[in-house]
# Entry
Amino acid sequence: MTADLFDGLETPAPAREPLAPGAMLLRGFARPDEVELLAAIAAITAQAPFRRMITPGGHQMSVAMTNCGPFGWVTDRSGYRYDAVDPESGQPWPAMPPLLRELAENAAREAGFPGFASDACLINRYEPGAKMSLHQDRDERDVGAPIVSVSLGLPATFLFGGLKRTDKAQRHRLAHGDVVVWGGPARLAFHGVAPLADGEHALLGSRRINLTFRRAR
Ligand code: SIN
Ligand code: FE2
# Structure
């Protein structure tokens, strides 16, 4: 068998799937780090627990969130913003572990965006039924830097649209370890996540965790 020749030699290069100019899906890119990533997330959420935030319109989000890094994304009745302090604890967000920062930097480079220095990591937790409506990531000061999104746990349907809300969105299945990077001409693309289907993941149970790395300031 030809495949045996490669066993134990080298991990094959990640499969890259271009989604649009400036947007790339890296299949399984985060898988080699899964154990360390989950340990890091457990430590972060022990300090800054997941919470379901309130939108400026007064709705409670179905996705539970927390952050690590110098800045965290928050929403409440007064709007969306990046804040260096966790409003629940009054303390700075937990530090971004080097492993996470490096994973984001490496994925960005792989997708054509070298030198990505993330200063904010939003951690999203989806339980079955949770979803994220189509939106743009536009609260960052510098949209010259890409967004790097890491999927863990249950698979989800990622919606990736265009620069207008009404542009038809592509649907991509994101599985455990998949990483999506969008920047350049795709940086302000509308995107979202369809309601999470029920299921059971070997490491995460009936949950999906997504990390999105940004350059906020
Ligand atoms: C986000 O847009 O912040 C989250 C995307 C995802 O969960 O895949
Ligand atoms: Fe987003």
User: Anything to note?
Assistant: The chain is about 15% helix and 30% strand.
